[in-house]
Write the structure tokens for this entry.
Amino acid sequence: MSINCIVVTPAETAVETEASSITLPLFDGDKGVMADHAPMIGRLGNGELKLEGPEGGSRFYIEGGFVQVLDNTVSILTNRVVAVEDLDSSALAEELSDTLAMPGNNDEELDLRERASDAVRAQLRVAQRS
Amino acid sequence: MANARALDKRRKSVRNIRKITRTMELIATARFKKAMDRATAATSYTKRITEVVASLAKSGAEVQHPLLEERSATDNAALIVLTSNRGLCGGYNGNIIRETMRQFDSLSESYENVKLIVSGKRGITNLEFRNYSADETYTQFEDEPLFEDVKPIADQLLDEFIAKRLDRLDVVYTKFISSSKQVAMVETLLPLGSVGNADDEEETGGIDADFEFFPSAESILEEVVPMSFRINLFKCFLDAAVSEQIARMVAMKSATENADDMIRNLSMTYNRARQSQITGEIMEIIGGVEALKS
């Protein structure tokens, strides 16, 4: 029994594939989905999406959004999706120091800086895990 | 009678222009196809987000969000104008600018401050010429607007709206209805009238499942609503890009046809002029011969 997994970003349908198990980065931790999962809608965080299929697995970094599980179809709506192989740890480390150097003079700027650095940290974590 | 050589020169230059307009037409056609593909790719996201909203509504979640509330305050409004960076696309920019002036004037009547945000060089210069000064301008959007580029603009507007520094947001753009019909129109994006499209909701209303929500329906709604606004704005940019290419395609097609007509007319006058020149020369020779005979 396999699950149909669709990852869409505002610009395109990035991934459409069959998988036997899926690990999703929900906002507060990872969640696994296998065949015949109960209908679910969840809020996603920044992190790693793991797909395990018959012909090996694939891994992606996704940035926020939602997931809908219904009838063995997992629809993932996210802002950005990148294959883990395309993440470059050294470039990300540089980006992290850039985002940390952003101004933080008021609440809004602090919030912005935190959001940006969170996203980069999550990417870095995913890239280093491989 | 006109000079045959001058006519030939003119015909040559018309031919050159025809070559250019024909090439531009072909390029616009190719770009239109690409832009169209991108626009269709983006609809799958909209469709799914409407599905999620429909499921949320079914679960009985209170659809309440600051972005959905109608504001009674009439202090600040903003108007986004989407024009092209390049010209030679018929009435595309003209229609937008006419619509912009009308909307800007009517907004100025009811709102104290109206901020004008213009994207596209054509709109910026044209509105400046008409004494409408833009508060913010963007020129980075070509025929392939990226979501990453639209998102910061959307986020900034969202922040302003939530902080009550903005009470209404309108967009003037060319809506793509079909490949033979595009209309310059004004759309109010903030406050959001409803999340997603009403027509789509009916279609997807068939989902009848008890969803589990992580963490809760309300929390998901909090995230869906701003996302829905971002995607709406992005769709406006995509529509504008597609419409621009169509407008250019049509304009260049008629320019090519006009050049064809002109070449035909010029050829005819040129042939006539050449013939009468030859006749004149023959008459001169005969005249000379006759003069020598006598």
